[in-house]
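hiii so um. not sure if this is the right channel but i have a protein structure encoded as tokens and i wanna go backwards to a sequence. like what aa goes where. can anyone help
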């Protein structure tokens, strides 16, 4: 048994709006994605027999993208531990609360515990009138070699409108536009062309943006290039802090160094956000005209009431972990400054961050992640969505 079986995949189109991650990974064709599936299959085979069914089920879960990415995160961590010379026991029966953490790790005769959590940044408000996924996919399938579109939803009906008339109307409108003429007019401050489509209670206004001359003619490129701006994003430090809080106290006293590994999916990830979440907000004080720096007591380890946070020896983070970033990202181990914490072990492929007084001191990794994972640095090799040219025959 494997996670992904081999069959003649023929659909190389990018992920569709109405498509789940499990569906996408299963159907996308091309050498780039074959490499991804082959490595996932191989890493999955390295799990002990009792752990394989649960991880496979989550990787193939078409009802939860979170399940897919949390399983990928655990698979990556497991392989990194094995590649670092560790032996790994999955879901050991340790701790004082009757719950089992993800990994009991042994390296050079010493043991430590790793608990994995994957967390994704969310929109803090609703996006500004997003299209239903079925409509977005229908528009993206339109051939639009010369333009990409933005849109604004002016009014929304109760039922999803028919797609046929929308596609036909947009196709005629785009075909009537000359990209070079639009560019020339726009340089003279003429607004970009717009078209409003209406059907019942639905009204959508589209705007056409000419593609650069070198980017035209690709039949596989998406037609929608700009989606409406969201109201905002949730707070990154708070999300990281919440993830560590939930896992940090889950198992009681493990009597071993304990690392919470956070796979951190974010739109604009910043190490400063993790620093704030764990060590507190950096502040500047003016004293006798001389600025000094300090930290608020609002970090995971620096809060006034820590409530056993010293049990967590370190927090391991990777921004936007995904198969195509596995070999390119360096994990960072944020070490606990709490004197009651057991020292966290440091693997060669981990960079470190440590709070010294109020400053964070960083050290680079000794070796690369791809070396530990046994993969080329630029893996997967090739392009995810290679450009396909159309040829004209006489």
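sure thing!! here u go:
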């Amino acid at each position: 048994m494997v996670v992904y079986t081999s069959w003649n995949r023929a659909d190389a189109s990018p992920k569709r709006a109405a498509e789940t991650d499990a569906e996408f990974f299963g159907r996308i064709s091309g050498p780039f994605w074959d490499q991804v599936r082959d490595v996932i299959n191989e890493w999955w085979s390295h799990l002990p027999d009792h752990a394989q069914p649960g991880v496979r089920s989550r990787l193939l879960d078409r009802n939860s993208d979170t399940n897919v990415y949390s399983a990928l995160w655990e698979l990556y961590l497991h392989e990194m531990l094995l590649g670092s010379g560790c032996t790994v026991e999955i879901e050991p029966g340790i701790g004082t609360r009757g719950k089992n953490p993800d990994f009991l790790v042994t390296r050079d005769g010493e043991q430590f515990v790793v608990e994995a959590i994957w967390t994704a940044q969310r929109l803090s408000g609703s996006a500004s009138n997003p299209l239903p996924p079925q409509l977005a996919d229908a528009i993206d399938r339109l051939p639009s070699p010369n333009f990409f579109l933005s849109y604004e939803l002016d009014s929304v009906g109760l039922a999803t409108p028919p797609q046929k008339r929308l596609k036909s109307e947009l196709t005629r409108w785009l075909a009537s536009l000359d990209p070079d003429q639009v560019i020339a007019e726009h340089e003279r401050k003429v607004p970009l062309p717009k078209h409003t489509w209406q059907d019942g209670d639905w009204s959508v206004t589209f705007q056409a943006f000419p593609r650069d001359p070198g980017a035209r003619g690709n039949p596989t490129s998406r037609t929608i290039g700009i989606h409406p701006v969201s109201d905002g994003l949730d707070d990154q430090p708070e999300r990281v802090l919440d993830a560590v809080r939930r896992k940090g106290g889950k198992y009681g006293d493990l009597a071993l160094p304990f690392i919470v590994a956070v796979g951190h999916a974010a739109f604009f990830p910043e190490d400063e956000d993790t620093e704030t979440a764990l060590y507190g907000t950096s502040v500047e004080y003016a004293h006798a005209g001389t600025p000094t720096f300090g930290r608020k007591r609002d970090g995971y380890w620096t809060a006034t009431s820590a409530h056993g946070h010293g049990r967590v020896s370190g927090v391991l983070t990777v921004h936007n972990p995904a198969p195509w970033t596995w070999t390119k990202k360096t994990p960072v181990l944020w070490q606990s400054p709490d004197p009651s914490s057991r020292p966290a072990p440091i693997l060669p492929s981990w960079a470190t961050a440590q709070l010294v007084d109020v400053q964070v001191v960083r050290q680079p990794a000794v070796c690369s992640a791809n070396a530990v994972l046994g993969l080329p640095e630029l893996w997967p090799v090739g392009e995810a969505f290679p450009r396909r040219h159309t040829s004209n025959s006489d």
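oh and The first strand starts at residue 87 and ends at 90.
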